[in-house]
Amino acid sequence: MPFLNVEFQSTDRQNIIRSLDDDVALQLREAASGLQSVTPLLVFLEDLNSDTEFAHSFVVEEPELNLYPTAQQGLLNWLVEKCTKGENDLTITTHSPYILSHLNLLLYAHQVAEQHPERRADVAAIVPEASWIDPKEFACYQVEGGGVESLVNDELGLIDNNELDGLSGDAADAFDNLIRLSKGIAVK
């Protein structure tokens, strides 16, 4: 699991997580909850993905659970790389604004490389090419109040504002108002 800088080993009913930084090993059941959540998913998908004879449809529900934001980004890169090869497709459900934001990065990296082929290597130095997402092969929907709404801006080919962004904005506005109150300034 390179994005977590750990290795998983299973032998004789022992499930071991080994840190590649300091070679420390521990039982999976003793590892952090994020590792416990994501390890079975990655092992399963890696095994299933080794069957290249057939196209697969992968559905991953809330992969961000118990993961730090940078680990969420690494996991998303891994999922896109492993689960969208050939005719495979990937569906993710999420409540994570980090996942949505990172999806935009993967979409935009593809766009920049397509619009400026001479800069492809520079783009790949920032975002691994295997993780780029072609906007023509991407959809993003918000399900709310019994309805479904596309979140993709057709003109930009990116995820547009959504409720999760709105919640972050609301929190930022509330924080700004608290700062104003603390300084004796009128609240907006």
How does this structure look, described?
This protein has helices spanning 33-49, 69-83, 97-115, 120-126, 163-182; strands at residues 6-11, 14-19, 25-27, 57-61, 89-93, 141-144, 147-150, 152-153, 158-159. It is of the alpha+beta class. It has a domain at 32-138. It has a 3-stranded antiparallel sheet, covered by helices on one side. The protein has a two-stranded parallel ribbon with strand order 4-5. It has a two-stranded antiparallel sheet with strand order 6-7. A hairpin with a 4-residue loop joins strand 8 (152-153) and strand 9. Helix 2 (69-83) crosses helix 3 (97-115) and helix 3 runs antiparallel to helix 4. It is globular and about 65 Å long. The N and C termini lie far apart (47 Å). The mean pLDDT is 87.
What secondary-structure arrangement, pairings included, does this model have?
Elements lengths: L5 E6 L2 E6 L5 E3 L5 H17 L7 E5 L7 H15 L5 E5 L3 H19 L4 H7 L14 E4 L2 E4 L1 E2 L4 E2 L3 H20 L6
